[in-house]
Amino acid sequence: MPDIKTPTTRWTLNGQEVENTSGMTILEAASEHGVEIPCFCYHPGLSIAGNCRICMVESNRSPKPVISCSERIADGLEIETESEVAVDARNSVMEFQLINHPLDCPVCDKSGECVLQDHSYSHGPDRSRFIEDKNIRHTKELGPTISIWGNRCIVCTRCTRFCDEISGTSELCIVERGDRSVVDVFPGIPIDNQLAGNTVDICPVGALISHDFKFEARVWNMERKDSICGGCSRGCNIEVETLDGFVKRLMPRENQDVNDWWMCDEGRYGWRHLYSDDRVLEARGPSGPLDSSRSITAFIEILDNSPRVAFLIDPFLTCEELHLVHALAASSSDSLVGGWLPEQGAAAEFPAGFKISADKHPNRNGAEQVFGHQVFGEDASHLQRALDDGSIETIVAFCGGPDPDGPGQEWSAALVKASTRILFSVLEGNWLDGAALVFPATAPLEKEGTWVSEDDRLQRTRSCWKPGETPFPGELVLLQSLQSALGTRSRSLSAAGIFRELSEVCAPFAGHNHSDIGSSGLLLSDRPAGVGAGGGA
Amino acid sequence: MDMQLPPLALAVIKAIIIFAVILQIVPALVYFERRISAWIQDRIGPNRVGPAGLLQPLADVIKLAFKEDLTPQGADKWIYRLGPFLVYAPAVLAFAVIPVGIDLQVASLGVGVIFLLTVSGFSVYGLAFGGWASNNKYSLLGGLRASAQMISYEVALGLSIIAILMTAQTVDLNEIIRQQWAAGTLGLMQWNLFQQPIAAVIFVVAAFAETNRLPFDLAECEAELVGGFHTEYSGLKFATFFMGEYVAMITMSGLMITLFLGGWSVPWIEIPTKPTVWDISISVAIFSLKLVALLFIFIWTRWTLPRFRYDQLMNIGWKVFIPISLLNLGLTAVAGVLGWKWLIPLP
Amino acid sequence: MANQEDAKEQELERTTSTTEPRQNAKFAVPVAKGLINTLKHIFRNEPNTIHYPEERRTPYPGYRGEHRLKRDELGREKCTACFLCATACPAFCIEIIAEEAPWDDREKRPRLFNIDMMRCIYCGMCEEACPCDAIELTPVYNIPSLTRAEKIYNKEKLLSL
């Protein structure tokens, strides 16, 4: 079969002849050749507005500079990005943008990641020629999570386009005209959609400010770590920003196969329970706190004295942790494993294809790969029946979710029937009462390992902070210590090492390892990816 | 002296008095060292404790006495404790034979100088023991340097003294002093300082080295060895080392006065054959004045000159001073055979 | 071969040994000069030092001592909690937590502003970085204290200086 060649266009960029796929804009094509053209209103996920004018370049086909974000390449086109005309045009636009922009970078939360700041540094004038009074525009709350600082707005319309195109809710609009125009909402209709937080991310200046992050930290002080959102089974790629080891905010990370550039507010703001006063932070027995070695001894004592041990897993555990539970269950004969699922939430799909799953847990698929497809179905009901008969005395249950009720009313009631309960929990709750041993569990953002999303996409989640003044050993470490004490493990491994073990015994993971998962994940099956992609223009 | 006390009691009393006096000189010396160093460095010096800072040495002593007395882990405890005393005791003991007034000394030994040399040579054990027993590399190096340095310079010191002894034909220190006396201002020339100038210079330098004073304090050498042999010492053990150094300074000054500066005599005052208490007091005063002058030179030098490098120290010791002192010895011998004293003939 | 090595050794000895007899004789002159110099100082003693707690030196203008936070004409702290001082600080001794300001003309102010004076190296970079001219280094240099806790200056302390 002959290759179907994508049509290409030959054009000249800064005096060099280059080739690109036909139909690209100058800005995109130039960036493929490493030439960055500044822009404010252009966003790869949004339609092209062409209203900021900073991306102007000199063209041989036009007497005046053209805007590179909307002009497309053509054969014979000659573009100069650094010629006198282009630079002059850019600098003039920059001067205009800064006329009414207040110099409040020191108190602006965007400062440090502000596009206007960056371009002002590289293209802007070092002083203002504007001697009149600056325009004052409104500063107000646009919705429960977002405020506008109108003075800072450069009217790029990224946020209004986002609400029109991505979330499809169209709450935001530009009001007034000329230099008085500013972003606003319609009276009585605040911006309150599930993706509203993204407007803050895409705002190139500090006009839209998230209440959650307001005055929390300066962005340049924070450390960033790539991770996966544990809020639902979509597995949105995120970047966790921490200050002195404390999570300050979550930001979406681009992954065209999963979440494009976006994430939902539920995931974005859904990490506050990590800092709840009700966290379980140390292992304890009936008589009080236990240090890690004594807690392991107690655990083993219970296992040794139990004829039949059951395990209740949760879909927050990583594949590695599940593998360890699996190995532990396999080492004792006649053990039962079941899984519980949190209550379903509301699913949502947005015009641009962004989805929120109803399954509010990150790793159901992974658990099913490790334990077989019945683990949340038939196995679980089997386990529940066994608990009801009273044929199970010892049960080990996990809860890594944000619910203080643990595995829910039904399961909590069933668990009580087992006389000896070893419970792993993130938060304190009634279901922990009367447990033989309680261990602190790690929540999403604290786990190191892999999750499998509902699209069968294997992705790495990373531990972004360690809770407690003296960090407790997470499930990954604790279960390994348990195995060492039982004599089934010779040395403790990192998550990557455990994954290697998993890939040797579990067919769906065969041949993979942590390093080839990469930043955008890995499809486990040939099932076509449930679409997140395709948003934007 | 026509005292009716039995000789033993007399010796004990003299010993106690001189011991007590030396012990009192040390704090005074510390004070003057601080004060003179301040003057040299354009500072003010001690001025907080007592009038003009006079009680500063007392404060130092109180501080040292109440400091924690540490023994490092792995130290050889007994030798560690012995160290300071082996430095202090020989220095005090050596002073016993130095005549501080007309025929006034704790022990009028016939072997005078030889006893002094023998006993003061012991102090090297103190330094070496202290350095070795501390179980510390700096201390050990300090102790090693101390022993090498003292052995080297003891040779030069001894040779320069022998030159004196050869001309004096005696080892009795009082006799040596009497020989240095001559009437009139020109009688100063009778001092061995002028009769044996080479020996005098070598003696002074070797005395600095023997007492571990700058510019020869390589055993301590703060810049390289933290504190050298006494790095690990604190409290009263350190104080003992410290006092040992000062007493050794006094002893060496006393010996210098006796051998080269006419001892307790001055040319303008005739030595009475039957000294009264008055005469003895005057002679003690003369001795004290000379002592103060020499101690000043010790301090003055310390705050002027930087420390020698170890190789320089050894080079000077072995390649310069020992050959020169041997040469001097030879010349003295020749002069003795020819029947005239070195340089200035007897009047 | 052996001769060559000997020659090398001798060369090494010659170049590294600095105490040949001739030089020994020479250095007696500087030693004497030094002794005379120090003797002069003993007799012409003009101390360059002062009796410190009683007499105090007046620092030169621009001296960098203890910090203070300035107030504006309404008596409010000038600081807007922009963290630029903390960012500029090479010793990481400034700790700030921001809060919303209760005033109309200002959005942000520090809720907590601590300077760890034990860590501070008094370089003045904070003063340099401050866009509001809110922090400054005073000429106060005698700032001992008996506890470590006293050396962590909080906002109230810094404003009262």
Characterize the largest beta sheet of chain A: strand count, sense, and whether it forms a barrel.
5 strands, mixed
Give the helix/strand class of chain A. Answer: alpha+beta
**CATH class term of the largest domain in chain C:** Alpha Beta
Can you tell me the overall shape of chain A? elongated
**First CA to last CA of chain A: what distance?**
31 Å
Mean pLDDT reading of chain C = 83
**Total strand segments of chain A:** 25
- The tally of domains of chain C stands at 2
What's the gyration radius of chain C in Å? 29 Å
Helical segment count of chain A: 13
**How much is the average pLDDT of chain A?**
89
What brief labels describe this structure?
heterotrimer, B: 347 residues, mainly alpha, 2 domains, 13 helices, C: 161 residues, alpha+beta, Alpha-Beta Plaits, three-stranded antiparallel beta sheet, two-stranded antiparallel sheet, 15% strand
Textual characterization of the structure:
The complex is a heterotrimer of chains A (537), B (347) and C (161). With 537 residues, chain A is of the alpha+beta class. Chain A is built from 13 helices and 25 strands. In chain A, strand 11 and strand 12 (237-243) form a beta hairpin. The longest helix of chain A has 16 residues, at 84-99. Chain A starts with 7 loop residues before the first strand and ends in a 14-residue tail after the last strand. Residues 527-537 of chain A have low confidence and may be disordered. Chain B has 2 domains: 17-66, no CATH class; 67-96 and 111-170 and 179-250 and 306-338, no CATH class. Chain B has helices at residues 7-40, 56-66, 77-95, 112-120, 123-133, 137-168, 173-179, 192-195, 197-210, 222-225, 235-260, 277-302, 310-338. In chain B, helix 9 (197-210) packs antiparallel against helix 13. The longest helix of chain B is centred in the first third of the chain and has 34 residues, at 7-40. The relative contact order of chain B is 0.15. Chain C has helices at 2-16, 21-43, 84-88, 125-129, 155-160, and strands spanning 67-69, 94-100, 108-116, 135-137, 152-153. Chain C is 34% helix and 15% strand. Chain C starts with a helix and ends with a helix. Chain C folds into 2 domains: 2-43, no CATH class; 67-160, Alpha-Beta Plaits, CATH 3.30.70. Chain C is an alpha+beta fold and 161 residues long. Chain C has a 3-stranded antiparallel sheet with strand order 2-3-5. In chain C, strands 1-4 form a two-stranded antiparallel sheet. The chains are: A alpha+beta (537), B mainly alpha (347), C alpha+beta (161). The B-C interface holds B 36, 38-44, 47, 300-301, 303-305, 309, 311-312, 315-316, 319-320 and C 17-19, 21, 24, 31, 34-35, 37-39, 41-42, 45-49, 51.
